[in-house]
Amino acid sequence: MSELAAKAQKLDGADELAAKRAEFVLDDVVYLDGNSLGALPAAVPGRVEDVVRRQWGELRIRSWTEGGWWTAPERIGDRIAPLVGAAAGQIVVGDSTSVGLFKALVGAVRLARPADSGRDEIVVDATTFPTDGYIAGSAARMTGCTLRPVTPSEVPGVLGDRTAAVLLNHVDYRTGRLHDLPSLTAAVHAAGAPVVWDLCHSAGALPVGLDEHGVDLAVGCTYKYLNGGPGSPAFLYVRADLQDRFDSPLPGWNSHAEPFGMRPEYEPAAGAVRGRVGTPDILSMLALEAALEVWDGVTVDAVRAKSLALTDFFLECVEEYVPAGRVECVTPRAHAERGSQVALRCPDAGDVMGRLIERGVVGDFRHPDVLRFGFTPLYVGFADVERAARVLAEVLA
Ligand SMILES: *Cc1c(COP(=O)(O)O)cnc(C)c1O
Questions:
Q1: Which residue in 10, 192, 206, 275 has a CA-CA distance of 20 to 30 Å to 62?
Q2: Whose CA is nearest to atom 5 of ligand 1?
């Protein structure tokens, strides 16, 4: 056995999260794409079967009330809350991340800008995941703002009394760089504006501390590190003290103070419910609820510690096995700047990833030249990491 394989065995033996892997449906494939689609928690198929056959098939309409369907968006929001450092009552689940970003960003501009204010710029991360940029562009046109795309490090320098709202990513989806949420949030607040954080690549992977750092609004997806399943609904956080002023650009009957009053005038509900729009997507939502049970007894701090150990070990194995100069790591080495993925640049990345997948190591390729490996501490072990780096070296040789 190689030195690194022996080290992996030792690390796996000391891993307090190792038993969690058994709560997922996995095979012999090294699955390093949980940052795109989390693996299937074993409790989900049975729950979905129950939701479809009994709750829908037998109870039918009664499930909305007796079965807890109606309140599922807030209930599941409260289940996610501790994972992102939020007290209960501030998160609702529903719609896609893209839709949630729209609600949050237009809502943020409306919070920042009474009619007479000159705040007319939306600052957005120029390196963002495309949907965030598209939504920000549309939000700017709708609110009469100018879009100001800058890199996250340039954000503090462009803030001022024209800033209406800022949209930032906690972790860069391509490079895996972790941005400094506490200091950027403080900088936006010092300019008198609200900030919206996109937590797609941090929720379930590392501590976020929404309440602790006074974040205004946040959106995240649940099918990556939260393993909610393909297209599972997103979550929206609106800080408790802003909820009364949160004016959603998508007011639907589900966020009405009295949804069954069927009144022609809109009167927003109090609390997190105000972030809802229409009828919740119950099948995916309840699959997500079952998926979240894997978090019972798990702390985000333990997940973060293992995540850093996994990515450190992957970098060590890549350095040892892969011929020098063949790949360039674009993920920061410093723990404070690293999410839960490692991105390696190599000119033929698309082809390399195809061959890795053929050999049972699944990561993904991001245009134009990035190999992306996501590490989900709940089900990825150190032996997986060693094998992934070894197979990568074989493919690159
Ligand atoms: C995954 C991801 C999304 C996905 O948006 P959907 O509306 O769920 O398709 C958005 N933003 C970021 C930063 C992401 O990583």
A1: 275
A2: 97
